[in-house]
Amino acid sequence: MSRFVALWTMGLTLAMACAAGQADEKKPVRLGILGIDNYQAVEYVQMYNNPKAEGDLAGLRVTAAWPVISEDYPKSAELTEMWKKQMLSVNANPKDPATAIPVVEIVDSLDELLKRCDAVMIWSLDGRKHLAQATAVMKAGKPVFIGRPLASSVEDAIAIFKVSEELKVPCWSCSQHRFSPGFIGMRNHPEVGKVLGCDVYGGYDVNAPEADKFTRSIHSIETLYTIMGPGVVKVSCQSTPTAESVTAVWGDGRVATYRGVKQGAVKYSATVFGDKGVSTAGIYGHGVPVKGIVPTNDKYMGYGGLAIEMAKFFKGEPMPVKPAETLEMYALMKAADESRAKGGVMVELPKLTTASK
């Protein structure tokens, strides 16, 4: 009898272990892509659909993409065809079949996209269309990430987050620069200590499409906030043929600058000032400097950092960048425009909020 009980117990234990194993093998979170005229649409397919993805990048799959085109955005149609072709051919015929990346289904409507996914990434380049696109996605109850720019205007940025708030559907946006290791790693850099200020520099496209003119500084402004954190109260802006120069003052007295390079060599980085020392930041995509030496032979993480943060979000973790901080960045850009128009005087940031007036 005892032998029977022992065998029965062993069988029950194996059955429970099997059931637990099946429970652990969760179906991947299905992601949809809205707009593929941005190369990043291809990049994240490669990361999330990689059968050998590990850690935070595992457990997701881009299942479908809707290639919307903006007729009056430069090269939108051309780029869409280019990246669609590349997306569909990513690692299609690998030497090892086990590494084949699942093909993304190209659909011809938002309804078809939403049927095939649990959450959406908006990668369309034209920020003027993001309010309508994001609203439709959120009305379907799908969490959404919007690639930079969140929107092409302050009004649309506020409206997007208001819809998110009213529908209680999470929505966030940020530049890939925010999670570049050499930028975000400067907040607690042992050679810098508490950050007291920084000088950020990056490109400023004088020939940007009309849709992008308000947000062309967004990647570097995001770097500014990555290193300094929110809390800007006033801004001044000087504009010359060679550079766009913004000085921002925080409520606690800290000061930081942004130099938008219009002529000459362009790199994306910063100099950071702290209570322990001064150091250059890492170059975009690379790690933090050690004793002033910036690594360039380390693993490139241009899109990798953001991919990890999006993956966490799509699996249910909180948004890593709050709407209030993103709106403050839009307030800074709006104040900078006003300062430029007034000859560079200091301008207080407007209070941007999703609350009804």
Short descriptors:
single chain; 357 residues; alpha/beta; Rossmann fold; Dihydrodipicolinate Reductase, domain 2; 7-stranded mixed beta sheet; 10 helices; globular; disordered N terminus
Structural topology:
Elements: H1 2-24, E1 29-34, H2 40-48, E2 60-66, H3 76-89, E3 105-106, H4 110-115, E4 119-122, H5 130-139, E5 144-147, H6 154-167, E6 171-174, H7 181-184, E7 195-203, H8 218-228, E8 232-239, E9 243-250, E10 255-261, E11 269-274, E12 278-280, H9 304-314, H10 323-341, E13 347-348
Parallel strand pairs: 1-2, 1-4, 2-3, 4-5, 5-6, 7-10
Antiparallel strand pairs: 7-11, 8-9, 8-13, 9-10, 11-12
Structure description:
Helix content is 34%, strand content 20%. The model is unreliable at 1-24 (pLDDT under 50). The protein has a seven-stranded mixed β-sheet with strand order 12-11-7-10-9-8-13, covered by helices on one side. The chain has a six-stranded parallel β-sheet with strand order 3-2-1-4-5-6, with helices on both faces. The radius of gyration is 23 Å and the shape is globular. With 357 residues, it is an alpha/beta fold.
Helix content: 25-40%
CATH architectural category of the largest domain: 3-Layer(aba) Sandwich
What is the rounded distance between the termini?
77 Å
The total count of strands amounts to 13
Oligomer state equals single chain
Q: Numbering strands along the chain, what is their spatial order in the largest sheet?
A: 12-11-7-10-9-8-13
Total domain modules:
2
Strand content: 15-25%
User: Largest sheet at a glance?
Assistant: 7 strands, mixed
Rg is 23 Å
- Supply the number of helical segments: 10
What is the approximate shape? globular
